[in-house]
Design brief:
By secondary structure, this protein is mainly beta. Helix content is 0%, strand content 32%. A hairpin with a 7-residue loop joins strand 4 and strand 5.
Length: 145
Amino acid sequence: MLAGCSGTGGNPFLKSKKAPDPPAPQDQPMAPPPVPYALTAQASGAFIQFSITNTSQSPIEIAPSMFALIPQGRRQVVPYGGETATIDSPRVVQPGQTVTGRAFFREFRDPAGSRLVFKPDAYGTFATIGGSTFPLVGAAGIPRG
């Protein structure tokens, strides 16, 4: 026997036949919280008309840097940039409200079928951009013409 080892403890290098304990509830991955906003988007020519609905109890700030485009058929994400895109929207959406805005990504003249990304927090969401079904309106809901 080796010095410092007891003969009654068994071999520490052999696997135990006892099943491992199930993980404690705090060890199991948690589902992400529900997204507190909804996004829809439609193309009107090269422009994207979008709506953001706030389903939370807190105001949600909106900034152009929170948007990106995923072109149809690609995995590339085109983030907002002053030279690449123009975003026209209100700065905040209050709880229970829906606001509209416009986006224009200069490289993409036909954004229908692409995905518009809105990411104001760690989760974000996206909407597949539908074809044109309604007239283009401004961020305040005033028809442009």
